[in-house]
Structure prediction request, 471 residues.
Amino acid sequence: MARNKPKLYRLTTIGHRLVKEGLKNFESISSFAIEKNQHRQTFTKFHDGDGVIRSTAETYCDVLDIPNWRENWENIFELVPEKITNWPVYDHGWVGRKNLVSSLTKKVQGSCRLLLLLGITGIGKTALSERIADDIQCRFNKILRVNFDSDNSPRNFVNIATRWLEELGISIEDNQTENILKQLINHLREERILILIDSLEALLTESEDGWGDFEDEWWTRFFESFLTIESSASRLILTSQDLPSKIETLASRYPNSYHREILDGLLEDEQIDLFAKAGLDVSLDSEDRKILIRIGKIYKGHPLTLRVVSGEIVESFGSNASAFWQNVGDEIELVEQHLLAAESGIKLEGVDDDWKLHKLTRKIRSEVYRRRVDAVFQRLKNQNTDAYLLICVAATYRCPVQDSAWLLQLNRYIKRLKDQIYSKVQQQEVLDDLLARFLVETSINHENHRVLGLHNLIRSVALEHRQTLFP
Prediction:
């Protein structure tokens, strides 16, 4: 019979203040650990908010000479809440990103109070935010969250803030938005709250400086207020497909309190781990392994697509990747040939290319294209028709090329479709919009020039949209 897990205790705000007071007699935590014969790593975690068993907490109180700690136990310590084990996205299928998780977790446990995760749809932003939250949740009194991709309630700040205050058990003293903001910020300053906000792009709109302003100015006020308070044990983890330029501008004044991370796909060894977790044969002498590596490479390690592919191989092909290849191999080989021709300099453009990566199978078509990527293109088309045009016409490039080549395509088709000529400033504004949405990948070529390209999945969709523009 399994033994009950021991109760864990962590410091309250008062307790943390008393511990810091006790440490004033020592040069550092390391010197305290050495002088008092304590395990430095365990004490550091305790000091930073992790839970320990009661006997360990009592020992620390004794060696730090915390006054009257037995009588004031309930003011100094609190039980660590039950851990969340069933996250909406982060699950047993998670693989990779070990170093990134470690690095970002340290930032959030340190001075970084606002972490922004960016990247194209399906790249794993939400899963990563939950993975980090899973590691640090024991340090917080409450976890609040909102996902603007799936939450159908009003997206204005006052509605979400009111809901959060209700979840925190705080009665709203005044319904004025200014007072609701103050109440929320005061609570975030005094208590340890972790807030996860997904799909922040749904709140953004155009501004004088381009894309990325908040449609509701109170969201700007909220993030500004949170970044400017003198101290806070609360943390925000945000995910977005687009760069929220207002946050970027605000946070530039507080570099220690803010970090943004642009996500790429999984590395090859991580892709192999993903396939293995799905139950596929990735043994070194397996033909299936070679096929799976080719699939992973063509999708550039895109986690959502690879998980969908894995599931389809298991469910529809009896976990036989070679059988799956019989159905889709021709399409992937065509893309491989086009990319090889571009890399070797034989043919950099493919005006007539007709890739099917976004519709390779029924499940990719429904779960990746229709639910995710198509919505990105439709949103872009509605919000900035010039940027939509640019990504469609630049999709003819099979490999990354310099900015000037992209702008040449834009000029050509703006003149053709609108009978206009854009200034260099106008051209750059259109390109900057795409860059701010992370639909364009940037890299440096062998001549130290910046070049722009498209993720293979994004190019596949862009080519199809181009065909509708120029049938």
